Amino acid sequence: MFDMMGMMGKMREVQAKxxxxxxxxQHITVSAEAGAGLVKATVNGQRKLLKIEIxxxxxxxxxxxxxxxxxxxxxxxxxxTATERAQEEMKKHTSGLLPNIPGLxxxxxxx
Length: 111
Prior knowledge:
Layout: H1 4-24, E1 29-34, E2 39-44, E3 49-54, H2 56-59, H3 64-94
Antiparallel strand pairs: 1-2, 2-3
């Protein structure tokens, strides 16, 4: 016989774990570089850009397009790494909560 009350309790537990994991994503910080460290971007697990650092040596350069490209590359690298770390964190908090159902993946939940 299907235990509806037990299933509802399990879903509440899953929701609480997901919320906790999402809240923890703000504490994950990831930095990435471009141009051999000339540009550095730092983002958190919620994919929010926290900081951009640009080496002074390229600020005086006449190649504005290069600076723009390096900033974009650094931010994209940091976002990709942050997304991967956030997915790992979500999976860690949700593993074992529900039976293994093909196609059900909480790793991307809220990302």
